[in-house]
Amino acid sequence: MCALFDPPSPRRVTPGEYPVWEQALALLNRDLAVTLPRLEPLQLLALPPYDAGEPENVYVATATGEWHGNPLDPNSQDSPASALASVADAAQETVVELLWQAWPLCPEHDLGMHPREDAEGRLSWWCAGERLRRGPAHVHAAVGALDASGTSIRPRS
């Protein structure tokens, strides 16, 4: 008879353990606070590695300890831009899958936005709204700079 596999328990990452990811998550939590104010800030959770000698697996999780998706890429800690892109993708996947709703939403088109590098090299929330009507897609705001007013940073013509 085989014993059931007991999966390892996740642990909350302690402050200062992964500073680049923590800074990136702080930006994401600013966007979360203005767009989904009922949600508590996201957190980093860690699980032991699957293979000996590998780094532990770090996830972006809700305050209740739930997450969805792959762990953060350990190499994304090499630069703040990489860390922000990795954390933004993971945060969005967790929020979208666990709440069953698009996040964040473009206030102009009511469509889910995605993190992409903008023309200035900043990671920004990008919306395909106008493209759906054969117009240009647009950048709504830099990641970490969403506001509750719904004002787009895209210049009007």
Structure description:
The protein has a domain at 11-99: Double Stranded RNA Binding Domain (2-Layer Sandwich). The radius of gyration is 17 Å and the shape is globular. It is of the alpha+beta class. The strands form 2 sheets. A 3-stranded antiparallel β-sheet has the order 1-2-3. A 3-stranded antiparallel β-sheet has the order 4-5-6, with helices on one face. The protein has 2 helices and 6 strands.
SS-based class: alpha+beta
Q: What quaternary form is this?
A: single chain
**N/C terminus separation:** 71 Å
Overall residue-averaged pLDDT value: 85
Written as H for each helix and E for each strand, in order along the chain, the element string is EHEEHEEE
Question: What name does the CATH topology of the domain at 11-99 carry?
Answer: Double Stranded RNA Binding Domain
* Main beta-sheet strand count, sense and barrel state: 3 strands, antiparallel
Tell me the helix content. Answer: 10-25%
CATH classification class of the domain at 11-99? Alpha Beta
CATH architecture of the domain at 11-99: 2-Layer Sandwich
Number of helices: 2
Strand order of the largest sheet: 1-2-3
Poorly predicted regions are 150-157
Q: What characteristic shape results from the CA principal axes?
A: globular
**Beta-strand residue percentage:** 15-25%
What Rg do the Cα atoms give? Answer: 17 Å
In total, how many beta strands? 6
Brief rundown of the structure:
By secondary structure, this protein is α+β, with helices and mostly antiparallel strands. It has helices spanning 19-35, 80-99; strands spanning 11-12, 43-47, 57-61, 114-117, 123-127, 138-142.
